[in-house]
């Protein structure tokens, strides 16, 4: 009696357990679906702003950094019309380049990142702090062509990559000016106020790069830097044939990581944070996620580096009458008039004077070099020797 | 001698004190305010109070409806009560800071003679034709005709009808509570034709935070001053297919009337191009069952990116661009079908991406390969293509199917492909969206100016802000009085002015000077002057305190 009683109880318990399990699985799958929806990013388009702030031949590696990131971003799907590339662009045709029209990123000249379809939007002296801030905030003079604008909206995910020489709280632009971390934070705040981004990923590869993201205060920004305050970011490897260092360490390892990403991969940001540990990079990479709403492990790399669109199948059509005979003759006349009018308007569309107007470049004053100083010293010595020593008797 | 000397030094000391005090007075009273005034950033005055008042703006959207009763539609004693006006007001429950109320102002009246004649015609189409020639209705207003319960104008089981122009027909009832019941039916029909909650939710989709993830798909184009529409023919295999399409004729015949109907909402420009050797980025798979190739639904998002770089849409204009692509697959991959999520081929063989455009795959008729050698001449059937493209254009603009009340006869759009009240719905949605955008821009500008202290506001920027605020208020007034066309124009002006003010190139915040740099500039200028003045002031103060204390001690 007792045995059967306990077995029936066990049977009932097993049945109840099975029922609960099935109910639970149904409920969790529903919850999972809803949860998945919350963790997905709500963006519809992707933009990238890639800035190299250095010029001159010995800063070859910064240009190679930026061009390599440009290549990865294009490979993963962001079109040129959505990339704003700012480079000094004086490497490929530099008289010191032993292989003209190329910029290599791996030693032994494995990979030419310059190629033949690089579209540089701001080149040479156009890469200034003012232009960079104008691109970010959108306060661009009306004559700027479309390729030089950041036409993002509130559903855009933007990737901003900056490289060059930097210090504690500033980044040097083209050896003549600098941008501070407060200006950058204010520019991001202006973007946020006008809802010019949905989420922003900021990557910086300079010395003391972490100081640049310390002052951010706008939401939905994730930042990565190649080194902490007080540390220097080091370059990777020199190439004996070209004679300069080809890439920086942090960007080199980030690119190796990105080579394994394809447009459909599910790798998340936590893996990107692990790239380039101290043993490889010598500096300590840092990241900042407190302003970001989602958990980094739910953020896909392709949310920022790639460009995947939401599509919908078209299921409806409109029924059209195949032939509207009466209207045709009337429409033809309108069409002819339209052509004439349009050809007249075209010439006025290009205000050439405004397009070619550029700020005149201020000539930098350099202190006189050794030869000039020596020459003048000689002249002054001769002068005083001829016309009277007594003023200079303390020197001679 | 000593006394005279002492008196002389006393006089000098007093003169010295006075000089020091005068210096200090000039420096503090004149110099300090002058320095402060000349180093502050110039800000023209802005209407901050009015801008913060815009946040609490209450929008009242009024739809004027005239309800016309025919002879036998309602009981006689109810007919005696005509004409009068009933107002039906409802608040739209959106979680948005701007409160929106919908107000349907129904003016009840009897029919005029010609209307009575028209409504006793045989079919609804004839009735509409007769009614349409005599009256032209303002945008936003609607007319509802109430016919008798047993009238044969509508099929017997249908209670209402919604027509392509701004008219609807509803059956009357012989009942004590006739007006209430009919009023309810009228409201149902009118709401379907003008404002419902989902229209406004779609318009404000970008401003409502909670719908960020759920309204992914229904994402209409943002309101803009103009649009650029590009039709592209992609021919990846010119060796096999010699494709011809009469795009100019098709645009003239089918697209242009549609765009003319929409011309109130912005400037449209249309262009077209043919691209050779442009392939889709995805390899189609072979389906042995139907011996055709297919593109699975999950690979469709990867199709667009490789093609977009070749479309050249970035050079066209600053307006948003809509791309419509017609892809003729290669001979090796023909015929090509698009499959939906369940694996069934899609009837239209097309898909679209919100805020970007649409792609349609056009399969060449296999009979064309029979007799001739390659390349085969292909004449694209523009009617089939334009049916799909116009449907996609409607979806991209957010002209969706309305919530039709039950037992309602609904006429399909014909002619231009757009019904007049659908345009009205678009204008309502656009006006609300424009007002929301303009208000957000102005509020953000005011907040920014508070946060970042070194932004200069010039006079012309200030005048744009004033104009924007005035336009927002005017638009709200016009919406409340039911003038949709002028409200939409005012809302567009509000958006242009506010965007122009916010994005003026002169608003670039002056490059920031950290505190230590400010000190480095001012200390060499002010310190050499301030130290002697301060020290002499301190000395004068100590001496005068001593001289006050001395008389107390010697008493």
Automatic annotation (TrEMBL), chain A:
Active site positions, chain numbering: 165, 207 (nucleophile)
GO biological process: attachment of GPI anchor to protein; GPI anchor biosynthetic process; proteolysis
Record-linked InterPro entries: GPI_transamidase, Peptidase_C13
Mode of membrane association: Single-pass type I membrane protein
Molecular function (Gene Ontology), one example: GPI-anchor transamidase activity
Functional pathway: Glycolipid biosynthesis; glycosylphosphatidylinositol-anchor biosynthesis
Signal peptide feature range: 1-29
Superkingdom, natural source: Eukaryota
Family according to the record: Belongs to the peptidase C13 family.
Complex formation: Heteropentamer. Part of the GPI-anchor transamidase complex, consisting of PIGK, PIGT, PIGS, PIGU and GAA1. Interacts with GPAA1. Interacts with PIGT; this interaction, via a disulfide link, stabilizes the expression of GAA1 and PIGK and links them to PIGS.
Protein name as it appears in the record: GPI-anchor transamidase
The organism of origin for this protein: Pipistrellus kuhlii (Kuhl's pipistrelle)
Automatic annotation (TrEMBL), chain B:
Pathway this chain belongs to: Glycolipid biosynthesis; glycosylphosphatidylinositol-anchor biosynthesis
Biological process (GO), any one: GPI anchor biosynthetic process
Family, per entry: Belongs to the PIGS family.
Record protein name field: Phosphatidylinositol glycan anchor biosynthesis class S
Lineage: Eukaryota, Metazoa, Chordata, Craniata, Vertebrata
Major subcellular location class: endoplasmic reticulum
Stored Pfam families: PIG-S (PF10510)
Gene Ontology CC terms: GPI-anchor transamidase complex
Signal peptide, first to last residue: none
Keyword Transmembrane on entry: yes
Membrane topology: Multi-pass membrane protein
UniProt organism field: Pipistrellus kuhlii
